[in-house]
Amino acid sequence: MKAGIWRRVGFPLTVALILFVFLFPIAWMLLGSFKTHVQIISLENILIFTPTLENYIAVFAKYNFLRYILNSLIIALGATALSLLIGLPAAYGIARSKMHVLGLVILIGRIIPGIAFIIPWYILFSRLHLIDTYLALILAHMLIVLPLVIWIMIPMFEAVPTELEEAGLIDGCSRNRVFVNLVLPITVPGIITASLLSIIFSWNNFLFSLVLSDRSTKPLPVAIFNFLSYNEVSWGPLMAAAAIITLPVMLIALVSQRYVVSGFASGAVKG
Asked: Is the pTM of this model over 0.70?
């Protein structure tokens, strides 16, 4: 009897509460992006108002957000591409050599807070005159993205039957050709999963971008500071900018959901 009541009442209420907690800030942000400053700070007529596009116009016309979007794309795609180039062979080597201790060391590097790396990164890049360059930001973001790629791909490669690789070697293929032509096509769902999550993590990174970027390479999360001043906060443009940052990530997550699920599922089953 109690189980039936839980299924009919308790479970739907719990799901509704969780959805409310997660979706309410997003809904408030989206609604606020179409309001004037007076409407945002007023608690009257929260849902009934005349929408305006002035905030989005100000974001692109006054604050040059197209430049920041381009910067974020260059940094996220660059960090993801280099991480895949290095991480895929590294993950394959760890998986086939069963070097799980090395994998643990890489994971520890990912767990350590970014604040522990930011001062050495800044000193190194300043000595090399790389502050405010895409290269510095891409390399810094790889500190977050590369361990993610390796740890996602290790179980993917472990799930590939070794007999398949042995057959390729017997047919005269080199180890590199076996890896490129046989192993990688099988692990495409995992590669897609690692790529999408890497782009999302790089896109949302704030700390490294705050310290290592300046006018020419400033990405979207750091550009939010343009709407904060000592005297006031431009709530309308701020919410419009937050929507611009958030919506692409949400769309990527929704569109790629089945790839991410299939990628993790394929890596969870061996041979």
From this structure: yes
